């Protein structure tokens, strides 16, 4: 009897399971339909409000008039509407409810729901007053930053003017005056940065994040400590080469300025306001791109950038790109200012694509236009029916920068430049000097991005660094990671970190750029060796449809994927600095030879 009873229970269980499976199937279909209806409604409103916000931000960045509050009002109004919707309690509760049953949903639906919840954490309705206060504070910070009147010896100068002096001048007094001027804006931004730290942290804590830095890092599927560990690993891997570059630069600059060799690099000696790029220290004979571009109009550079992308199989830019972008410097007598920091904008997550730049006929801008158009073509690639608007972003934030930097690197290699008639194909160049120039850009950047910027923002947001230690911390990190010191004591009346745009309006995300440099060399290594079959140091992407096909495959899925899986599928490995180290390996012997008998002041390892 016991066996029969047991058997009947088993049979009943089997039947019950079958019946439950059928119900589950029906329920699953109903749930998917319900979720899709929610996503469709959410997306329609999201896209409209996103566009309104982008339009207001565009005006605020392209027409800055001292004392005019119109833009500030419009940005506040548009961003509050966007924040109110994305952070609404109703949307949060619905999204959480749906995610409790995520196993019954399509993966694309789950990704969109996670995106909605992530966006909500930046603007939760439960702390709407805080969100409004933060939007107003961010707008005020931007107006202070981009409306600042930089003056040298009482004369107004642009940041471009300052950069030119730091790249070219041999007069240390002139360099010092311009460098100090470049940092003057930090004084006016320090209180605002402290206030923004508080508001940003309080906002995301409402949805359970410890702090704003942790919130931003979570977009990678990583913890704060995991990201810091990854960044420190990158710096440690390039440190032996950076240490050689640092020693070389100390001695070469001392020779240039007829000065004693310093223990650490004085910041005003370097050709960049933050010491993040030293490539201007080397001129490679035969690769004088500035001279080749001297008779070109800025628009020619922009069109040549587009021609490159078309040559590898991408579509022409829409006419609206040229009509609506702000590409060139303002006239000297313009009654307003604009943000001169190069950027690419996907205004409506559809076809309104724009660039904000101040293009001039220089090698820097020739590289930059290829970089920024990389963003634009990334936008175009994932604006397709297979990628919902909520997932129209990079595979991770670093991917976007990686693609831009990849095409910037490609556009500056000799065979590419020869293809474009900017250098003589037969000219002999010093390959070692060319590699040195590249290292002074790409390698030098990592200790700044992965070290100084990442650790400073971690200290500000996650460790609640007191305002009266902002400048002290900044220069401690600069000395540790860059081997760079200020020209003289910089007290807490200054806030030199805040002179960096990203500290103010792209906060707690600068590791994106470090990630991008690692990824770009992985992509470049794969393209050069497996597609072009060319030396990675001397490639020509121009006209290669297979290169375009590879890039399209990487770009077209946007954020509708797992970024780690996409990387493995495209280049066959996880994120690794090895291709970058391999690329610069031939430089080590040269630098060690140059540095024989010289004193190293950086430790052998961090």
TrEMBL record:
PANTHER family: ANGIOTENSIN-CONVERTING ENZYME (PTHR10514:SF27). This is Peptidyl-dipeptidase A. It holds the Pfam family Peptidase_M2. Transmembrane segments: none annotated. CDD domains: M2_ACE. Keywords: Disulfide bond, Glycoprotein, Signal. It comes from the Bacteria.
